[in-house]
Amino acid sequence: MTVLQRKDVNPIAHLTAQDVEDIGRRLEQIRAEVIATRGERDAAYIRRVIDVQRKLELGSRIVLFASLFPPAWLLGTAGLSVAKILENMEIGHNVMHGQWDWMRDPKIHSTTWEWDNASPAEQWKHAHNELHHTYTNVVGRDNDLGYGIMRVDEDQRWHPIYLLQPLWCFINACFFEFGIAAYDLELGKNLSSKKRRSDPEFKARARQVLGKIRKQALKDYVVHPLLTGPAFLTTMAATATANLVRNLWTNSVILCGHFPEGVETFEKHSIDGESKAEWYLRQMLGSANISGGKAMHIMTGNLSYQIEHHLFPDLPSNRYQEIAPKVRQIFDDYGLHYVTGPLPKQVGSAWGKVLRLSLPNRMALRLKRRPARAVAAVSALPGRAGFGRTESLPIPA
Prior knowledge:
This is Fatty acid desaturase. The chain is mainly alpha-helical. Helix content is about 55%, strand content about 0%. The protein has one domain (about 5-365, about 370-375). The protein contains 16 helices and 2 strands.
């Protein structure tokens, strides 16, 4: 996953500056067409999903009143797992992106929605919408790239602690909602010095996160289990299992969106002076899709169309499938690689990279059967130093 600027073969070296501007123009046209045609059909879709999710959650919690009986426990747990996934992925994530703000419905609006997750909505929107979507796959700027705890690029200096990377990546997946809350707080940076730890703004945000976690724990592990009386322990176990399933699923979908082989990463300086068209190009190169049927797309919050989502994060999620062929045609017309594949393939690819980057570069490169040195690619965009280098650069050990 060497950053694009250090690759021996640059995937965009053949593009001219005019090509990039033309790509941006075509994508803007796709966006304008969706905005011009969104309406009641889209509003009915999100209202229907919310209605189904709430009924499924309520029904599953009712079934858990009988969770002392294994069949009821399995049915209630499965239903609650699906309900939590729907709430986080197709509803919460997309509502907080502002995809449905045009409806002017205060109950389905990015400024009022609070989701079933440990991370407070306002902090998540800052870390995700403002930072991740602005600095997608820029090493050192995008916290979603490795969540601040993983080695995500061969050019990051290796340390023996990274041998444990697969383990803590799995632990992070199991407790993903808390991992998200932690990196929304930028704990690594804010706990690094006494001055940062004492910063009033950081302390206020930390109190907000702890308050949200207490609220979530009270709802999931005290109030609802108590309501089921003698089924308290089995209901609590069912809720914990549903949260675990939701966390593992969400983590897998996010990993598949930015970490499989074929997805590019970028150096910090490469986005200096970046135009809107160049931003579009970076989203195209820095994202990957998951192929599948309608159920897959809904359960991933339509992040199975991660490429389309990163190009148009505020368009209604139900439109991504509709515009995907048009987006893919642009990839084909300009000789770009549209990274997609079934879920098992994408998950395997992402975890293979997690394992490979936990090893020293020389060992990892032998596993990949590639040279231990990389030469910089030629400049992809003539006149823009940020997209390429001319000197030879050794890969650090």
